[in-house]
Amino acid sequence: MTDVNNTQTVSQFPCDNCLRSGRCLGSVVVKAGADHQRASEVTVVQLQRGQPLFRTGDAANAVYVVQSGALKARRTSYEGDEEILAFRLPGDAIGLDALGQRMQNTEAVALCSTRVCRVPLEALHRELRSSPEVSEMLFDDVGREFERLHEHLQTERRPAQARIAAFLLAQLKRRQRLFGAQIDRFTLPMTRVDLGRYLALATETVSRMFTRLQQDGVISCDGNAVQVLKATALEAMAGAGAEERAPALAKAA
Question: Which residues form the Cyclic nucleotide-binding domain (predicted)?
Answer without folding.
Answer: 47-145
